[in-house]
C-alpha cells in the first residue's frame, strides 16, 4: 500500500496551484475501495507537506512556502495494480478519519460524497418512498445540486493564509458528513477553510458524465477510478452486508446487493468519463489490504 499511496501523493503535490484548491475525485462502484484509498492518501500528502515545511525558510509564508516546494515524480502511472498484503491497516467505516473530521486543520483533507445523501425524512417525501429507501445509494437519492454548489465554492480563488484583510470565517465552506450510526447526513464539525488547499472527494458519482454530476466532474483537477471485477465486488459487498449486520441472512444480503449496489455500479460504469487524463487503479482481492504490484 505504501508504495502506491506515496506515488499518488507525489503526483498530487506536483499539481497544487498557489491561488486555488486542488480537487481530486476518487470514484468506483460500490465495494471498490474508495474510502480505503482516499484517507491514507490524504495522510500521505499531509506527511509530505509536513516534512517539506520543516526545511522551508522561516521568512516564507507558511502555506505558500510549503506549496512552492513541489516534489517530483518520474512518470505518471495510469494503471496501478492493487494486491493484498496481510499486515496493512484498514479504514474503519464511520471512523473520524473517514468522516474527514480528523484532518480539518490540515492542508489536505478527504470529503465523502455520502454527506449528500438525502435524509430518510426527505426520502419519505419522494413520490415512491418505498423505492427511494430501498434504492438508497442510487444517484437519485443524492442531492446533486447541493453537491455541485459545494464543488463550485471550492473552485473559487482563496486568500493567502497570512492575509489580514479578511476574517477566518469569510472563506469557510460548510458541508455534511454521513453518520452510519444515525444513517443520515450531519453537518461537519469543521467547515472547509483557506488552510485546506487539497480536497480529496470520494464517492460513487464523483466522475459521472451525466446531468448535474457532469458539471461537478469537469471541475476536478485529478480523476481517479477504481476498476474492479464485478464478481470480486459482489463478494465484498455480501461479506460486508453480513459482517456489519445490515442483513441477517445470506438470501437477504444477496437481494440487497443485487437489487441495489450492483445496479448502482452498472449505472456508474456506463457513465464514467474515460479519457487520457483518467487515472485507473485496478482493485484486486481485498482492497482494504493493498500494495503496489509488479
CATH architecture call = 3-Layer(aba) Sandwich
Could you give the order of strands across the largest sheet? 3-6-1-7-8-2-9
- The total count of strands amounts to 9
Question: For this structure, what is the CATH homologous superfamily?
Answer: P-loop containing nucleotide triphosphate hydrolases
Helicity level: 25-40%
Q: Beta fraction of the residues? A: 5-15%
Question: Secondary-structure element sequence?
Answer: HEHHEHEHHHEEEHEHHEE
Characterize the biggest β-sheet: 7 strands, mixed
- Shape descriptor: globular
The secondary structure category is alpha/beta
Instruction: Please state the average pLDDT score.
Output: 80
Total count of domains: 1
Protein name: BQ2448_5518 protein
InterPro entries: P-loop_NTPase
Walk me through what this model shows.
This protein is α/β, with parallel strands linked by helices. It has a single domain, classed as 3-Layer(aba) Sandwich (Rossmann fold), CATH 3.40.50.300. The protein is built from ten helices and nine strands. It has helices at residues 2-14, 34-53, 62-68, 96-99, 120-123, 129-134, 144-155, 211-217, 230-243, 250-269, and strands at residues 22-28, 79-83, 108-112, 176-179, 184-187, 198-202, 222-227, 279-283, 291-292. A seven-stranded mixed sheet has the order 3-6-1-7-8-2-9, with helices on both faces. A hairpin with a 4-residue loop joins strand 4 and strand 5 (184-187). The radius of gyration is 19 Å and the shape is globular. Residues 57-100, 162-168 and 286-294 have low confidence and may be disordered. This is BQ2448_5518 protein.
Amino acid at each position: 500500500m505504501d508504495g502506491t499511496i506515496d506515488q499518488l501523493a507525489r503526483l498530487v503535490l506536483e499539481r497544487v496551484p498557489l491561488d486555488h484548491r486542488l480537487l481530486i475525485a476518487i470514484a468506483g462502484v460500490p465495494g471498490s475501495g474508495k474510502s480505503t484509498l482516499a484517507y491514507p492518501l490524504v495522510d500521505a500528502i499531509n506527511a509530505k507537506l509536513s516534512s517539506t515545511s520543516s526545511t522551508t525558510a522561516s521568512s516564507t509564508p507558511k502555506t505558500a512556502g510549503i506549496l512552492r516546494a513541489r516534489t517530483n515524480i518520474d512518470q505518471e502511472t495510469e494503471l496501478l495494480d492493487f494486491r493484498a498484503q496481510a499486515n496493512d491497516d484498514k479504514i474503519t467505516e464511520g471512523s473520524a478519519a473517514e468522516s474527514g473530521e480528523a484532518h480539518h486543520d490540515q492542508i489536505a483533507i478527504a470529503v465523502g460524497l455520502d454527506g449528500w445523501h438525502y435524509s430518510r425524512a426527505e426520502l419519505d417525501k419522494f413520490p415512491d418512498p418505498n423505492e427511494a429507501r430501498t434504492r438508497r445509494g442510487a444517484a437519485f437519492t443524492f442531492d446533486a445540486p447541493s453537491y455541485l454548489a459545494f464543488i463550485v465554492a471550492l473552485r473559487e480563488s482563496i486568500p493567502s493564509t497570512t492575509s489580514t484583510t479578511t476574517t477566518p470565517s469569510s472563506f469557510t465552506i460548510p458541508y455534511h458528513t454521513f453518520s452510519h450510526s444515525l444513517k443520515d447526513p450531519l453537518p461537519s464539525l469543521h467547515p472547509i477553510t483557506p488552510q485546506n488547499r487539497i480536497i480529496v472527494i470520494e464517492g460513487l458519482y464523483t466522475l459521472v458524465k451525466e446531468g448535474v454530476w457532469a458539471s461537478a466532474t469537469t471541475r476536478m483537477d485529478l480523476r481517479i477510478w477504481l476498476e474492479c471485477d464485478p464478481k470480486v465486488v459482489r463478494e465484498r459487498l455480501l461479506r460486508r452486508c453480513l459482517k456489519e449486520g445490515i442483513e441477517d441472512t445470506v438470501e437477504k444480503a444477496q437481494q440487497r446487493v443485487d437489487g441495489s449496489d450492483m445496479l448502482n455500479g452498472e449505472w456508474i460504469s456506463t457513465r464514467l468519463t474515460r479519457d487520457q487524463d483518467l487515472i485507473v487503479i485496478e482493485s484486486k482481492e481485498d482492497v482494504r489490504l493493498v500494495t503496489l504490484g509488479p
